[in-house]
Amino acid sequence: MANYLISCSNPEKHYITVRIQTTINKQSSINFQLPSWRPGRYELANYAQNIKEFHAYNEKNEILPSKKITKDCWEINCADSQEIILIYSYYACQLDAGASYYDDKQLYVNPVNCLGYFEGQIEDKCQLKLSIPNNYKIASALVFDKNNEAIAQNFHQLADSPFIASDTLMHEEYKIESFNFHIWIQGKANPNWAKIIQDFTKFSQAQINIYGELPCKEYHFLFQLPNHKFYHGVEHLDSTVICLGPGYRLMDKDIYAEFLGVSSHELFHSWNIKSIRPIEMFPYDYTKENYSNLGYVAEGVTTYYGDLMLLRSGVFTFEEYALEFCKTYQKHMQMFGRNYMDLAQSSFDTWLDGYKPGVPDRKISMYFKGMIVALMTDISLFRDTKNQYGLDEIMRLLYLKFAKAHKGYTEQDYLDLVSGIAQRNYNTFFKDFIWGVEPLEAYLEACLDYIGCQINEVFSHELYESKFGFKIKEENTKCVVVQIAPESPADKNTLMLNDEIIAINGMQCEKNNLNDLLRFHGDQISLSIFRSKELIEVNLKAGTERFFPNYILSKKSNANHLQKENFEIWSKNKFEA
Q: Which residues does 49 contact at the CB level (< 8 Å), separation at least 6?
């Protein structure tokens, strides 16, 4: 069993000290591996860049020679030694849902960042001990005793068990059947606990209803609520860390909607990706990319269910659900890479550039398109089975046939389950919308019509978007071009990304006045632009076509009895247009 000790002092420096001890069998050398990435984020993270002063010792406190053989793997020469003790410092200065952070208020650690494993011992039990102030409470799915010690069954569980230690933690809990849920909050907030517990109980119950059980006996929501705008969540089997802000606005309608949405999403991951896992990630290989085409199930389906569970449970009204759906739909429709990259490829390529803007019009998001395709799959199944089965049944079967059998599933397994439940071949559906780039608008429209709903385009109020086809971001007082719609006036007249617009028809463009100037000058304009520190002029003329539309999902006022019935079976809500 490997023994891990995390201690810390000098919070202003943000360094924590890690000590790892294990016994060995007098072998000549052994490798120590730090993870290269963390499950839940499908990109390499290079955590080793945060380590300094790495030293290895034997049981006699003699220094053992060590050297790196990869960027995050150390080979330790340990001939004739019975024990190895590693000591190093880790820089914990990133406060988000997947990193580690230490200051005078808290010790927050994702072990997958800063703890590693010895070769051949990844399945061995691990003991974790924290050296922290006596008045600190510990929020974690790991069970810590009065000595601040916990046991993980193997490194996988240790890596999957984040914790927050602090004397300012807030804590409440609720129970559903035999399953216990904990909510921990770190940060400045005034939570309305009665409302939070009521809403969390509702959406948690809705998710348990699909699978019949929680994959664990206890589940912990760990919230970091900073004082600034932030949104990030990371899933674990029996916990999640969610970083959301500003915390002092937690109960305001917009922040609270995000609070509910991300919490429902991350809880659904306890089944989908932490239990139901692609075969390529069963088990996880922490040393390299774990490529899979199935991100559209792991993340797309979860994105779909996160908000659907809030609707089904009555936490969200249909209007609130529709608003969140349209936010995601609009993000997808404004990714012009949808004409070139398919959904399965976007899942695979997440390891390449899935979490950064990337080059123009190259890619799509497995989260955004995956959510839309999940809805299409769900409603298609209802239609094919005369409302007997939807996507719930697929997820339940994935859980029973694969997660409960401790094995991963393949893309063919997923296709076979969908086709089997529908009693028809879904190859064409997959070929068009998952393995191909067929536009999905018409199919989506038919699915929404089945449940008496429709999605409509409305013009953006931003004239530079709707009439001229470009988007901007404001950097201090600057207006910088960040996206251009294909075949728009901006595209045809060679406006370029990163152009800084400084004037329109000779009038200075300042922060927040771009739309007003366009309204004043009409459809034909001359833009004065700084491009690579050079002043140039670009002439644009608006046509009749509109770009970057917004979308509204609504119930049809003329929906018939069958459509209303379909809606109620799908949403578990009354239609009530």
A: none
Q: Report how far residue 89's alpha carbon sits from residue 15's, in angstroms, rounded to the nearest whole number.
A: 6
- C-alpha span between 19 and 5 (Å, rounded): 5
Task: Give the largest Cα separation in the chain, rounded.
Answer: 83
Q: Please, what is the end-to-end C-alpha distance for the chain in angstroms?
A: 61
Angle between helix axes 302-312 and 193-211 (nearest 10 degrees) is 120
Which H or E run includes 96? Answer: none
DSSP 56: E
CA distance 436 to 431: 5
What is the Cα–Cα distance from 302 to 280, expressed in whole angstroms?
Answer: 19
Tokens of 453: 């709903």
* CA-based nearest residue to 130, from 104, 109, 99: 109
163 bridge partner residues = 109, 140
Question: Rounded CA gap, 405 and 399, in Å?
Answer: 9
Residue whose C-alpha is closest to residue 22's, from 81, 106, 101: 81
Q: What is the pLDDT of residue 436?
A: 98
Return the CATH number of the domain spanning residue range 170-270: 1.10.390.10
What percent of the chain stands above pLDDT 70?
Answer: 100
Give the gyration radius of the chain's Cα atoms.
Answer: 26
**Model confidence pLDDT, tens digit, residues 139-148:** 999 999 999 9
Taking the whole predicted model, whether its pTM rises above 0.85 is answered as yes
Which alpha helices (DSSP H) does 386-510 contain, by range? 391-398, 411-422, 427-433, 441-450, 463-466, 489-492
CATH 1.10.472.10 given to domain 463-541: no
Give the integer Cα–Cα distance in Å for 226 and 106.
Answer: 12
Determine contact, residues 235/141, Cβ cutoff 8 Å.
Answer: no
Q: What backbone torsions phi and psi does residue 254 show, to the nearest 5 degrees?
A: -70, -45
CATH number of the domain at 2-164, please?
2.60.40.3650
Phi, psi angles (nearest 5°) of residue 174: -145, 165
- Residue 435: CB atoms within 10 Å: 16
- Separation between Cα atoms, residue 525 and residue 435, nearest integer Å: 42
Helix (H, G, I), strand (E, B) or coil at 318: helix
What is the sign, positive or negative, of the torsion defined by CA atoms of 325, 326, 329, 334?
negative
Residue 477 tokens, joined: 């007082």
Q: Which phi and psi angles does 511 have, rounded to 5°?
A: -55, 130
Render 144-185 in DSSP notation, one character per residue: --TTSEEEESSHHHHHT--EEEESS-EEEEEEETTEEEEEEE
Query: Is 168's pLDDT higher than 90?
Result: yes
pLDDT given for residue 477 in this prediction: 79
Measured CA to CA, the distance from residue 302 to residue 271 in angstroms comes to: 9
Residue spans of the domains in the chain: they are 2-164, 170-270, 309-456+556-571, 463-541
